[in-house]
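help with these tokens:
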Amino acid sequence: MGDTICALSTPVGVGGLAVIRVAGDSSIQVADRIFTAKFGRKSLSEVPSHKAVFGLIHTLDPKPEILDQALVLVMRGPGTFCGEDTVEIDCHGGMYIVNRILKELIRAGARMAQRGEFSKRAFLNGRMDLSEAEAVMDMISASTSYSLKSAVGQLSGRLSGAIEEIRKTLIDTIVDSEVNIDYPEYDDIPEVSEEKVKNVCRDAKEKIEELLKTAESGKMLRNGVICTIVGQPNVGKSSLMNLLLGDERAIVTSVPGTTRDVIEESLDLGGIPVRIIDTAGIRASDDLVEKIGVKRSFAMMKKADLVLMVLDASRPVDPEEVELLKDIGSKPHLLLLNKTDDSVISSQDVTKAFASVEDVAPLLIPISVKEKKGIDVLSNRIKDLFFKGDILNSDRPLVTNLRQEEALIRAREALDRVIEAKVPLDLLLIDVREAADALSEVSGRSTQEDVVDQIFSRFCLGK
């Protein structure tokens, strides 16, 4: 890549240790200018690859000022994360120390790295493809066991391998077809007909559709399932949120209408990443502030992947609750019958009360926030709703973001045109190529530079 870059790779802030990464053609020489080994070695250039040396970090001045004691790790390319010579300086974690060391590295010939530049160089140097690079960020931001498992699978090339297999089949078909067209006298090349090409495309389309079936689950593992809690005042919405979080995040009182605004938090619900949203109690009111809260509750309900409607088992179902269920409509939802420890109505009573809207029996989950009952059932129902079959426990590849999904959809559309067309072989190949190109975009084999820049700009500095 030519120039040498440097950045802090550990989080910004005071800590016991910090790691500063230097990468590029001159990284070893740059680091060597501000480092003196304590035990014998004259220069970092003499240090074997993937070996660490203890010594002093100092300024470049004629009379150097000692900045820190540090452990310096030398790694020579291409066997490094970004495929280039890399030096990592393990120093003490005070921000003043870190900033002084970075300034001296810049004086020695490096420059500050841009966001995601180390990972971008790894991609450009062929150390990973684009979907694997996205998985690096997914691993960093993973908040549950299942989201981490998904990211690790993508980083290991599970999705890339599945797509490359489809792409290779299309490329082989294009090559064989072009030889048939351009050199019909060659006997050692298999004969390719329009129907044979279509059969290949049908098989490829079927595999793409299997991948697309994982898109919603994959994106939710990556971003979290947005669950909005709604219901009338004082049914236990905020208490439920506090129970799920294991913390007194929302204010809970016996006064109806305590919650006036939206509260949003992230949590791990049985390995599933969930973004839980507590809302104001929904009821008719003349209070201006409460009306604004109710309006926001409806807005959050529209935003949700799943609506959790909380009911109070200690009183009959209110007609306004029946209207609320109508407002939820076709949005995925579950009914949580809370306060079952003080119940005056049964699940059958609730089912009858909502009979004019829908059969809520399959959606009803009795819970008791007070006695901490029913949460495991809720977790399993969310899994059943959004993660079909064995998708959470299998090693199947997952489509985890919109960019990947859109590329696969365009590939499928191109294959549809091939399958449905009644044209000569050479014209069919136009759409076969388009399908192969769309698949290539998932791994970044033929993608535009601005797309690459956009993806890596989401990374943190130092990664």
